[in-house]
Amino acid sequence: MPLIDWVQLVLFVGLLALITKPLGLYLSEVLDAKGKTFLDRILKPLERFTYRLIGVDPAQEQDWKRYTVSMLVFSFAGILFTYIILRVQAWLPLNPQGLPNLSPHLAFNTAVSFATNTNWQSYIPEATMSYFSQAVALVIHNFVSAAMGIALAAALVRGIARHTAKTIGNFWTDLVRVTYYLLLPLALVYAIFLISQGTIQNFSAYTTAHVVQSVGGVATQTIAQGPLASQEAIKMLGTNGGGFMNANSAHPFENPTPLTNFVEMLSILAIGSALTYYLGRTVGNQKHGWAVWFAMLLIMLAGFFIAFHEEKAGNPIHQQLGVSKTDGNMEGKEVRFGIFDSALFATVTTDASEGAVDSMHDSFTPLGGLVPMVNMQLDEIVFGGVGSGLYTMIVYIILTVFLVGLMIGRTPEYLGKKIEAYDVKVATLSVIVLVIFILGFTAWAAVSAWGVAGLNNSGPHGLSEMLYAYTSGAENNGSAFAGLTANTPWYNTTLGLDMLFGRFFMIIPIMALAGSLARKKRVPMGPGSFPVTGILFTVLLVAVIILITALTFFPALALGPIVEHFLMHAGTLF
Amino acid sequence: MPEHFSNFTMTTRGHKTFDGAMLTSAIGESFLKLDPRRMVRNPVMFVTMVGAIVTTLEVFITKGAHAFVIQIALWLWFTVLSANFAEAMAEGRGKAQADSLRKSRTQLFGLRYKADGTLEKIAAEVLRKGDIILVVAGEVIPGDGEVIEGAATVDESAITGESAPVIRESGGDRSAVTGGTRVLSDQIKVRITASAGESFLDRMIALVEGAKRQKTPNEIALTILLSALTIIFLWVIITLRPLGVYSGALFSVSVLVALLVCLIPTTIGGLLSAIGIAGIDRLVQHNVLAMSGRAVEAAGDVDVLLLDKTGTITLGNREASEFIPAPGVTHEELANAAQLASLADETPEGRSVVVLAKKYNIRGREITELPHATFVPFSAQTRMSGLDMELVQYRKGEAKTIAAWSRGAFPSEVQYEVERISKLGGTPLIVATQNRILGTIYLRDIVKGGLVDRFKLFREMGIKTVMITGDNPLTAAAIAAEAGVDDYLAEAKPEDKLALIRKEQAGGRMVAMTGDGTNDAPALAQADVGVAMNTGTQAAKEAGNMVDLDSNPTKLIEIIEIGKQMLMTRGALTTFSIANDVSKYFAIIPAMLIPVFPVIAPLDIMHLHDPQSAILSAVIFNAIIIILLVPLALRGVKFRALPAAAVLRINLLIYGVGGLIAPFIGIKLIDMAVAALHLV
Question: How far is A368 from chain B (nearest CA, A)?
């Protein structure tokens, strides 16, 4: 790796570490209904007004069941709201291009996709969505689905921190406070920064440009316009990833400069990283928070180095055709970003449940493309989707503690909470559902006419496209391997269900876990307790996560990217 | 412990892990345990059995060469049988013990009082709770009960293995008698406290046999985790077939089943129940009966140990350890006076004074040598003992009592000694004549050997030790410091003990204690691990969840170690089992894919002979590792009294890293053998 790339990597990791504490401290205030922030003077009246409007008493806490039901009611109302707008957008304002209504299956897929923080896009945004749809029906979810993830993580952390308690917080309070005090102000500042870098923000009709050199008789090009900066900011911060443009963060309007590229990557991980600090602070064990942070960092770096190495090594078949070996694999990458920024972006966007891309993962080398896929199959616990990364990580910590903790000769404990049959049941359930849907839908598609019909490539690469799509859906990532033509009734419906089940069937057991942990007594930590800090724990956690994922997905990956890798070196491409 | 640790004399003492007869019967049992209704309780092995049935059917249904499929089927059956064998072996050890216990119960009769006061001879089986019986010398007591009249020496070796007879008498804490024990002298009237079939002996037989065994909480949690892994792998295998169809590879059912069985955690799944049974069995070998597996598991989780001072931390009796003369008195003078004053004192403390005096060349004297003397025995009223001679009267007793009795001045040096000894946790006794204070006897508690180190280990393991004593706080503090316990409860009444347990439990800690008296019963019932002494009352035994047949309170420490060891063994084999999967993937996945994608050959890092041999080798390894680990499951992994982090590091290295590497070597070796023997 050239020196400049090393410098950028060190800067990236260093800045991520630096913002963790201050943002974590701020989060602790936001996630405390009585917390104080410097924005109180401006936002407190608005917050109070909102509670009155929706009839919520912010002091009234909820048990896990009420919390979960509130979350579900809110989510399904949101899905319905977006579905209706998408189905009637032709008759709504802010549609200068006169774009038609969406088909029922695409509207269903998209509504679910944005409400679940997946932001999978089966469509080409600039050719499908009116400005109204983008700025109202979709952007709302960019905020609230992210706020919801953070709220759920906070509920679980409270469950760990409290003892012999019935309640885990109030969903509405968490949702409102996170949206008002965290996401809106950050997105505002972020959007202004993006505009300063050249991102557009308007409601104009698309412009037509005359190309410098006409190709194949085409002399003009339509340049899409729109309120990009406002959507771009929350797209990154809230690990949403649904692009305003089809090219997503590879598009010069979405990601105009190297600086925006760097900041976009950092902003994907920022809140997830800060949440580890919130965890440590809330449970009164900051070292544990950092141990979790380092476990995340280790997996991130491992993934990045593999992806970088594979992309840098390039494709031997291209090289036989005269492509310089030093260029690496530049297929599907922006020349302005190159190997380093593409590999890091691909790693980071799938570490978190972001899904934005600045290069086409479909064009990565087989093992380079395996990295984003495996990142998602790790259940996106590397800083992760805002909130979802932390709560999933905690599930893995509990599994690690239980799996290995018996070896110290005690009933396994996590931060003083005994891990009993019920906890194991709900924790494993949340992991099983993802495996069931990812592998189930992929296998179904692989042997169905509708599944194979959507493929752009044959052979192992085609399998990777399907596996990637259902992984991205169930894990609520939303990035696409591209290549797959997913805007068909079958794909839209199955992927819609994949996202829906992957989100909610996972969240419900996790909330049950939060309730169960809150009810337990807390055993004081001592030398006899399972260590949840330090190098041993960090390494162990990483090992268990990788082991469980590898054991689950190895056969499918072997038939996809791994076989493709060997075939590529034997001279076959797909 | 050495001094109190009784020789284990139960009939199965020193049995070997494997002996011929037990082995044969365990093999037979393995087949009987194939009953699907039993198998379904263990999801991992149930799936394995279904796999074995499916592959067996494949042999009969499909045409063509079957050598490979037949061998896979056979090894899968062997895997299931191995797990059953492990369980049968664990149960076998208990059964042998139960059989010998049963012998002591056969053909018992009792003399029951009828309503009119006459006696009738009835069989033990018809005895009911509340019946009054008479047992005379030479007879075996037909059921559990309480002595309501008389006293007798009883041989309890059938239960405890201890051959020395014990005294059982009405009233007090020694009134409980156990069915199956023999009265050696005198006769006693006994009220039966347990109907036939519910007696202690019956429960003991049921326990060691494992007949009423229920899964413990942690075992249930672990079974859930193992089932979850099984579901995941089942789904991985089910979806692998369509993925193969897409890729142009038609995986056969037998190959998919082979991969499935290799992936699901059969090692721990097969050994889990054996580990639990062996844990209870290890306690029985230490002469401790746990009323449930749950109690053994709780022992591993204990955070606080409540230890009675007397009998547990210190030897039962205080001993005179030093004579400290008052100014102007020689050691010999004091020793002589002390001995004379103690001659009539038959308490262990009194005798220890006589013994100590001999060290000052004062020969032991007998009461008969002093015909003119009058002995003043210790009484609760005077709180002194002594000897009245013609001219001089000797007394020994507490400082206050003596100061009141003697006309001699109480020297400040002696006063100082009294305070010093009290602070050290000892008991000062003053020796005096009617007009002179002679000096002080230092009576001290003797802390049992080896305890200090033991408590230090406990501290490192994060277990807090609390000494319970009726002594005053000053004395308690001194002994606590000497024994190295973390805390003490002085001037403790039974209700204080109960309150302390409740307080610790409210803080989320688990508490273990021992007890024998009826007034210990509430605390024994409240504690997470309550070990009742076999010499204790029936109430105490009913309240606790374990009974120590040796009545040795120090054994609480062994009990905790056995509980921990059982959990460690489970964890170690779980880790080992899952770590094994990595190598099995590297054996089987390349073998499955090479026929369709020969380019994938580099993935076969073990360079196995051919695809069929690779798959068969993985299946064989998976089966024989269960058998190889049976001894470890029964014996338990090595117990280490270290902090959790250190234990984790060591066990991770052995069972985690070892579990990762071992099967690579094992599968490679088996593959070489399979190839050499041309098995496929």
Answer: 18
